[in-house]
Amino acid sequence: xxxxxxxxxxxxxxxxxxxxxxxxxxxxxxxxxxxxxxxxxxxxxxxxxxxxxxxxxxxxxxxxxxxxxxxxxxxxxxxxxxxxxxxxxxxxxxxxxxxxxxxxxxxxxxxxxxxxxxxxxxxxxxxxxxxxxxxxxxxxxxxxxxxxxxxxxxxxxxxxxxxxxxxxxxxxxxxxxxxxxxxxxxxxxxxxxxxxxxxxxxxxxxxxxxxxxxxxxxxxxxxxxxxxxxxxxxxxxxxxxxxxxxxxxxxxxxxxxxxxxxxxxxxxxxxxxxxxxxxxxxxxxxxxxxxxxxxxxxxxxxxxxxxxxxxxxxxxxxxxxxxxxxxxxxxxxxxxxxxxxxxxxxxxxxxxxxxxxxxxxxxxxxxxxxxxxxxxxxxxxxxxxxxxxxxxxxxxxxxxxxxxxxxxxxxxxxxxxxxxxxxxxxxxxxxxxxxxxxxxxxxxxxxxxxxxxxxxxxxxxxxxxxxxxxxxxxxxxxxxxxxxxxxxxxxxxxxxxxxxxxxxxxxxxxxxxxxxxxxxxxxxxxxxxxxxxxxxxxxxxxxxxxxxxxxxxxxxxxxxxxxxxxxxxxxxxxxxxxxxxxxxxxxxxxxxxxxxxxxxxxxxxxxxxxxxxxxxxxxxxxxxxxxxxxxxxxxxxxxxxxxxxxxxxxxxxxxxxxxxxxxxxxxxxxxxxxxxxxxxxxxxxxxxxxxxxxxxxxxxxxxxxxxxxxxxxxxxxxxxxxxxxxxxxxxxxxxxxxxxxxxxxxxxxxxxxxxxxxxxxxxxxxxxxxxxxxxxxxxxxxxxxxxxxxxxxxxxxxxxxxxxxxxxxxxxxxxxxxxxxxxxxxxxxxxxxxxxxxxxxxxxxxxxxxxxxxxxxxxxxxxxxxxx
Length: 868
Hints:
Largest sheet: 6 strands, mixed
Helix content: 10-25%
Radius of gyration: 26 Å
Distance between the termini: 35 Å
Number of helices: 25
Number of strands: 29
Strand order of the largest sheet: 23-25-24-29-22-28
Shape: globular
Strand content: 5-15%
């Protein structure tokens, strides 16, 4: 999210899947879209039938590759190097969209004199603190920008990068100096040009393992498909995010799309393909520790938590839409605490918990193993199979006092204590595990009503078809009744710690024999209303900071604009962007930043790419989409700082979430690992970093290296000579709990396999369908060998490097079973969002099946050189 959020303003896909049909080129990278998002892939196929060039860049040849015009096999972990080469190509060959870049990006903005690029710091930007292993971004600000009181929230040592996407908090970025000629050495454009100067086609070819002619073919195709008459789109998924520099990979794509003028336009944009039905929704209304609904930051202990005044001042901007931060925050507090939230008690601000450390998922698993966590709810996950370093996580659960698992079946997580690999190997003894496990049956999708928010920020409603069987209940039922019981207890125990719980509004109507809370009543609270009469609000623009409105998530305001109307449940598509089918936040805008679809003067860039335009007669923006720009601000408007908000921005500045209204080629605040992307090698690699040989990996990335989470030496540990990458299959769902128990899916993909190239198979004497054993410093697994030309060795710096591909859906439960692939992976944290690296590690592979029981530990330690 911060990759998109800091670049453009919002952490969501900039476009709609339907708009892919208007693309002249589509680059799919970090995703096998045909396999993982097959419904959305129909729009790629429609575009190709219209003449669109489809490019797939992936280490493996997949179904997506088969449908592409060009497949580019890329060494895992070299995405920034490849895209950085594309950026350099566009600049040096004058293929960038000058008028778009000059008016709509910060290319002309001049940086401070004390800023030092990584090219001057051998892989480090200015502000690096080696002792803290963190950046102070003060020197990254614009020339003339004044540092904001309260400092750099995105760089709090305990913080993640989700909230508000942390853009613009370090300084008042509407105060700056520009050079419209783009020639000044310290303007963003020239800094960008110098930064990527060494990402030449030769460098890309040598270290990505891509033939130079193929790289140039991709560069020329994207350049030819961009400009006033044409647009190109980029699609990505977890193949980008699950890296130790994942946010910066996405940032590099954002830079490329801004240079080509492809953001905010039909057929353009960046489509973040979300892996589950509501992954976008789980960040909008978060299951994350560092944000509140609508990307509002959680208060941080001893940082912005002293008073609501300090908190709001720190996170508001004087220009742009975040000037309305007070309205969004106060309305959230009114939704949660109702009449109990007043101006006199700071709207309940002191009732919010404070972030005191790394409370992310991976962080708390390490704490659990260290005996610092007593209880855990697991709902909709199966970490015993689906999480990195599964051995550590399964062993960590033995330290819990209680564990609640809600799922459709008994998962490996629920059964870790009795039949896990650690029990079989003698590492865990069921008689000695004190964890009390509560397995509670959950309702399936067809057995409950609610909404999903998917890939394109689209809320879609699903209605209950049948009652759940037996004791199975929905998540709404479980959370509501648990909350009700806790509130009943708090009402009796009126202690200081229960003040917030006593104040919490919790009066949802229930229905049916099971007293399930009404899902539409919950959505109505999320949408928001006027407090005096609970009349629903049609847009977030009506939210107020005076306590007169309530909204559980401001970006969703408008999904229920009036009583009796649920737009998420509407299925009457009216146009090629899907208006009338569901509700896309914000305001049902399908293509974000769509002011950029028109020229600075408000007229369309071309007839072929018309989307929004200024209607001089009506004095408003109109077109095929809902305006993502204030409808009444004309193109020639000059920003008035005294008025603040969107009125403080010029009429030709489409990126209103940013306080300068521009798309950011260079990020002055908001990222923990630098204002520009850099190629770093994965945390485990066979290759020394060709850009900065003395700085192998992303400096602020956290390996959490310890005896039970150890790493190979990098680069080029002789014990682990092959690249390891993991992925998903169409036929199974993530950790397999929902698919390995279904006979038809189990039959389609019955066992764990390892994809290897014929060259590697010949080198170590492996035959098709033979057992092989894979080893890393974290674990040992066995799989059947799938010898296939879909996997190819890479020629890197004159040397052949082999890769092994491993899907991760199997465990020891279900109709089909297999070893846990994620046992091989490390717990690591990318610095901005604390996500793990799963796409580019190293391993060893040998013939034969691993030993059973305690002998497996001995075998693993022998192959891994003393692993613990």
